[in-house]
Design a protein that fits this description.
The protein is of the alpha/beta class. It folds into 2 domains: about 180 residues, Glutaconate Coenzyme A-transferase, CATH 3.40.1080.10; about 240 residues, Acetyl-CoA hydrolase/transferase C-terminal domain (Glutaconate Coenzyme A-transferase, 3-Layer(aba) Sandwich), CATH 3.40.1080.20. Helix content is about 25%, strand content about 20%. It contains 15 helices and 27 strands. The strands form 8 sheets. A 7-stranded parallel sheet has the order 4-3-2-1-5-7-10, with helices on both faces. A 6-stranded mixed sheet has the order 12-11-17-22-26-27, with helices on both faces. The termini are far apart.
């Protein structure tokens, strides 16, 4: 049987595809763009017929009936990122959250927790019978290679990317077609604080360095101030529009990378329609599974690795909380620690935790004596390298507690420095 015959034999409706899911199954879907909307809506409509089914996904950008499920005895909805559509459900105990370091997800799941069904969006099949996972390779590629069943949604809007991201028609159990534009991540406005922080970090980036930028106004501002650099490289978990713009400007060439040279490496992508079009069949981009992209020892093989990640708060000893307000989960663990550790091991590498000095019209300091009770520590104080606010850069790594306190107070908002000093003395830190 040729590949087209296999394709037609496996082509079905979403309702037929989810008939392959049984009681007790664990189902995994990718990040954001890889979320197969028709298949998961059909699964949600089957919820009353199923028992003890677990569904896991990350970064809930699409509206879906799956996020509206309330009865966890039928389908327990689990997330690797508590996004806006799931947040309330997690806080109410209807949905749940799995804290896992991004790089560890495939290995952890392969040994302690596995998935019987993987479902994802793919680009159209090529003449050799292969589908590209496009924008969402992440943890899903490795899970698919071990799963009992693979259900795919073919979407011509999904870019055909290169790298380690291919599924063959012979591996697929059901195919649903759903040609719909991918989710767009609007670029947030870049304010004065973003520009100040972006400029400070960009000043630390030398020609030939390799960058990892996350999402948000601060990473976009860093990109803004890198327009005069030469031969930058990319090794990042997330491909964004700021990286695309630097490619377009000729700033990123990857020529001087010391590992995975000549290509921008990422594990997932989220941005504009223009960026997705640029990614399509572009040999300058290589999409790899997260356990390879985010492995700190692989990151360390890239010289002059510059990592930029955000935080919600940082305490005076350098502990970073980037995922919760007290015990209320707000986002996720993600790959922050992967890149903090990897950049530290890189020759000439640096990692930056960036945040505004204050919140709520300067009334709340985000540099705090102690993290709010119940806060989850995303990056331990032993790993934090630099912390950046609009007031400067504080070196944390290898510093005494007393020096850390002084360095962090120096980049806090001036209105809160006396209070921070008073609290530090009361705690015996200085």
């Amino acid at each position: 049987m040729n590949f087209q015959e296999q394709y037609q034999r496996k082509l079905c409706s979403p309702e037929e595809a989810v008939r392959l899911i049984s009681n007790g199954d664990s189902i995994l879907a990718p990040i954001a763009c890889g979320h197969p909307r028709k298949i998961l809506d059909a699964l949600a409509r089957r919820a009353g017929e199923l028992e003890d089914v677990t569904f896991f996904s990350t970064l809930d950008f699409y509206p879906s009936e799956i996020w509206d499920l309330k009865d966890c005895d039928h389908i327990q909805v689990d997330s690797g990122f508590v996004g806006p559509r799931m947040r309330q459900g997690v806080h109410e105990g209807i949905h749940t959250y799995s804290p896992v370091k991004f790089a560890d997800a495939p290995l952890t799941w392969g040994t302690l927790r596995d998935w019987s069904v993987v479902t994802c969006v793919v680009s159209p099949m090529d003449k050799h019978g292969y589908f590209s996972m496009g924008c969402s390779v992440d943890y899903t590629y490795s899970a698919a290679k071990r799963a009992d069943r693979i259900l795919v949604e073919v979407n011509r809007y999904m870019p055909r990317t290169h790298g380690k991201c291919w599924l063959h028609i012979s591996e697929i159990d059901a195919i649903v077609e759903n040609h719909t534009p991918l989710p767009i991540l609007p670029s947030p406005p870049i304010g004065e604080k973003d520009q100040a922080i972006g400029r400070l970090i960009a000043d630390q980036v030398v020609d030939g360095a390799t960058i990892q930028l996350g999402l948000g106004a601060i990473p976009n501002a860093v990109g803004l101030f890198l327009k005069d650099r030469n031969d930058l490289g990319v090794h990042t978990e997330m491909l964004t529009d700021s990286i695309y713009q630097l490619h377009k400007a000729g700033v990123i060439t990857n020529r001087r990378k010391t590992y995975m040279k000549d290509v921008s490496v990422a594990t997932f992508a989220l941005g504009s329609a223009e960026m997705y079009e640029w990614m399509d069949d572009n040999p300058a981009i290589a999409m790899y599974p997260v356990e390879e992209v985010n492995d700190p020892f692989i990151i360390a093989r890239v010289d002059n690795m510059i990592s930029v990640n955000g935080a919600l708060s940082v305490d005076l000893t350098g502990q970073v909380c980037a995922e919760s307000f007290g015990p209320k989960q707000y986002s996720n663990v993600g790959g922050q620690l992967d890149f903090v550790q990897g950049a530290w091991r890189s020759r000439g590498g640096k990692s930056f935790i960036a945040l505004y000095s204050t919140a709520k019209d300067d009334t709340i300091s985000r540099i705090v004596p102690q993290l709010e009770p119940g806060s989850y520590i995303t990056t331990p104080r032993t790993e934090t390298h630099y912390v950046v606010t609009e007031y400067g850069i504080a070196l944390i790594k290898a510093q005494s507690v007393k020096q850390r306190v002084k360095n962090l107070i120096a980049i806090a908002h001036p209105a809160h420095r006396d209070w921070l000093t008073f609290e530090a003395k009361k705690m015996g830190l200085i």
